[in-house]
Structure formats: structure tokens, C-alpha cells
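[recover] target loaded
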């Protein structure tokens, strides 16, 4: 009888224990319903990611905007951690390559790389299986899932057309355009030039192909180029377009006291803070603005989309706009906000 009673008690205890375990498991699921749902949502969205962003440098105004965009994505997404770094300068080639090589062996889930030497970076990333996005500058490698940057030809066309329209408003009847270009053979330079030409011609202007002045994207050489243009065209030219803002501002300064160039449209490219100031002060006419903040944001976004199992485009256009005297202050305020956000 005692044995039978003991057996009955043990069986009851076992059943109660099993019931309790079952109840605790369900209670944990139900009580943590909100957290469990959030976890499931995070998993569905890909869980937690650590993204490495390696820029050409973090020591310039333009790249500070790119950095701000990448960091903004981090702030808006709790499951994404973004680390941003860059070489000391845009000529610190070895430093950036070492940085990339080290980080590729790290615990990152994906990478955004703005290469100083795209061909060297292409060799470094061979065989990588984690998603890699090229930012600002293309990397020709199968490991790169997408290029996020400015559609330079499209942006150049936007600027060329705007410059031609303004030249008409300023009284020019012959809309001729000469470009002070960057490095001959450089893809970015060639694309911007093709865009300028298409934009000017779309408004009935003439792009003087034979007068292109290559100045290696340097302001000092742009000064020499502009002096040559004034010597050859003393009567003035409707439009002087340049491959970047520094060259455009340098050229405009050379012509500042020349009466025949007082209504010349000087068009730059980048839309930096200094360009906005120059436009507001009348030292530059307009600039094609690259959307560097959007470039940084969309680069990280593209990596995360791939990690989540989504489809990504081979090219993501970060956009462009034209900065004029009418919107230069607004652009300047926006840029200042980006700079303040990375301090």
C-alpha cells in the first residue's frame, strides 16, 4: 500500500511539474509578446548589422557630408551600427589600402568603400563574399554589389542647361561655352564634360570642344587656363564651366575686373559651402551640387538591403541639383546642419 501511495504521489508531482513547465514556457512567450514580436521583426529585417564605411578621407568638407549621411542611417536604425573612417588625405593611398585590408578581416557584416585607387582596391577585395558597395567612385570588381554616386553626365547636363538659360537672361545672343576641365582621360571628368555639352546644346548653345582647357582639377592651373581664354576671346564668352568649384571660382576671380566678362556665367561642380558663399557674394554664378549626404546614407542603406536578402541596383544615383543665387543660402544652411551633426 505504501509503495502504491508513493508511486501515486510521484506521478502527481511529475505531472504537476510538466504542467508547470508548460505553463512557464507559454507565459514567457505571452508575457514577452511585445519583445518577441520586435525580435521577430528585427530578424525578418535581417537582425543586427555592423557596417564598415571607409571613405577617401574624413578631413575635407565634402567627405564630412558623406560621413554625416552614413551616420544618419545608423541613428535611424537601432539594429545597424555604422563605423566611419577615412585616410588622412586624398593622397594617402597606402594608408587607405592598409585600412581596407585590416577591416576585411574584421567582424563586419558589410562594407562601403570610397576608393582612392579603385584598381588596387579591386585586387584587395577579391574573393570577398560579404556585400561591398562602392561609394562616389566605381570599383570594377564582381565582389561589388552596387555603385552609389552622382550620375555625372546627367548632373552635368542639368548644370549646362541652367547655365545656358541664365546666359540668355543676362543678354548673351551667342551662347558659347568653354570648359576648364579636370584630368584628361578621367572618367568622371569625361562624363561631366559630356553632360555640360548636352545641356548647353539642349538650350541652343554651342560647346566649343576644341577649346577645352585641361587644368588637372587644380585652381592654380585654372587661373592660367582662364588667362589664355581671355587672351583669345577678349570680347567675352557666355559660359565658362569647370570640373569643380575650386577651378570655377579661380577662373571667375581672374575675370572679375574684365568688363567683357561681367555677365559671363561661371559654373562649378560640387556645391560646397565655399561655392555657396561665393555665389551669395557674387564671385561665382552657379554650381552643380552633388548630394554627398544622400550618397553616404544610400550607400549604407544599399548594404543593409542586400544583407536583408533584397535586390539592389547596380547603380544608385544619389542625385544632383543646381545651386543659384536664389537657393544658395538654403543650400548653405543645409550643409552647415550636416557639418554640425558630425561634430
Amino acid at each position: 500500500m505504501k509503495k502504491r501511495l508513493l508511486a501515486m504521489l510521484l506521478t502527481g508531482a511529475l505531472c504537476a511539474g510538466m504542467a508547470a513547465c508548460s505553463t512557464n514556457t507559454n507565459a514567457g512567450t505571452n508575457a514577452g509578446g511585445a519583445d518577441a514580436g520586435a525580435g521577430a521583426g528585427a530578424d525578418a529585417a535581417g537582425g543586427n548589422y555592423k557596417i564598415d564605411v571607409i571613405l577617401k578621407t574624413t578631413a575635407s568638407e565634402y567627405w564630412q557630408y558623406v560621413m554625416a549621411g552614413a551616420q544618419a542611417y545608423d541613428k535611424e536604425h537601432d539594429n545597424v551600427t555604422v563605423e566611419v573612417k577615412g585616410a588622412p588625405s586624398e593622397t594617402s593611398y597606402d594608408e587607405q589600402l592598409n585600412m581596407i585590408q585590416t577591416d576585411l578581416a574584421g567582424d563586419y557584416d558589410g562594407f562601403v568603400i570610397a576608393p582612392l585607387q579603385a584598381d588596387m582596391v579591386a585586387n584587395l577585395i577579391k574573393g570577398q563574399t560579404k556585400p561591398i558597395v562602392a561609394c562616389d567612385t566605381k570599383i570594377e570588381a564582381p565582389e561589388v554589389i552596387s555603385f552609389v554616386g552622382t550620375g555625372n553626365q546627367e548632373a552635368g547636363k542639368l548644370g549646362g542647361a541652367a547655365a545656358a538659360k541664365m546666359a540668355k537672361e543676362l543678354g548673351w545672343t551667342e551662347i558659347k561655352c568653354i570648359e576648364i576641365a579636370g584630368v584628361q582621360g578621367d572618367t568622371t571628368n569625361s562624363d561631366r564634360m559630356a553632360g555640360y555639352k548636352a545641356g548647353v546644346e539642349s538650350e541652343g548653345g554651342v560647346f566649343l570642344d576644341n577649346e577645352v582647357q585641361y587644368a588637372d582639377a587644380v585652381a592654380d592651373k585654372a587661373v592660367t587656363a582662364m588667362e589664355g581664354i581671355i587672351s583669345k576671346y577678349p570680347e567675352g564668352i557666355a559660359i565658362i564651366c569647370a570640373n569643380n568649384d575650386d577651378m570655377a571660382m579661380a577662373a571667375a576671380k581672374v575675370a572679375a575686373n574684365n568688363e567683357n566678362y561681367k555677365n559671363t556665367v561661371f559654373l562649378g561642380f560640387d556645391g560646397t559651402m565655399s561655392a555657396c558663399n561665393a555665389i551669395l557674394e557674387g564671385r561665382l554664378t552657379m554650381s552643380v551640387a552633388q548630394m554627398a549626404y544622400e550618397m553616404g546614407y544610400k550607400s549604407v542603406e544599399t548594404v543593409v538591403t542586400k544583407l536583408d536578402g533584397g535586390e539592389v541596383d547596380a547603380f544608385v544615383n544619389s542625385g544632383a541639383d543646381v545651386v543659384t543665387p536664389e537657393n544658395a543660402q538654403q543650400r548653405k544652411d543645409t550643409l552647415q546642419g550636416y557639418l554640425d551633426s558630425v561634430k
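[recover] notes: Residues 266 and 293 are 25 Å apart (CA to CA).
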